Amino acid sequence: MPVPATVQQEAATRELVVTWTDGHVSRYPYRLLRQHCPCAMCVHEWTGAQLLDPERVPPDIYPKDVARVGAYALRFVWSDGHATGIYPFALLRNLCACRDCTRART
Ligand SMILES: [Zn+2]
Ligand SMILES: [Zn+2]
Predict the structure, then answer these.
(1) Which of 35, 41, 56, 64 is the most exposed place for a label (fewest CB within 10 A)?
(2) What tens digit of pLDDT does each residue of 56-80 get?
């Protein structure tokens, strides 16, 4: 299982750029990442139903802080004050929308 080697915020494109230990590079638009927050406030713990209305995520959202949580996840503090989202690496990798990953998933 690859893990992020580097995590960079790219202000110009409003993307988080993750370079993985297997050399893969993923680019995540900030808003998309926020919309996929897996915390208990955004996704129902038991049913998996999405509680967050993706339309209500501000278009100008950005991460104020990105921190590594142990060896398995990244934690985001968002500009809308939301700070409970812990994104496991497997989830992040799954959110990669590049052509290779999209093709591998279908
Ligand atoms: Zn959340
Ligand atoms: Zn990819």
Answers:
(1) 56
(2) 999 999 999 999 999 999 999 999 9
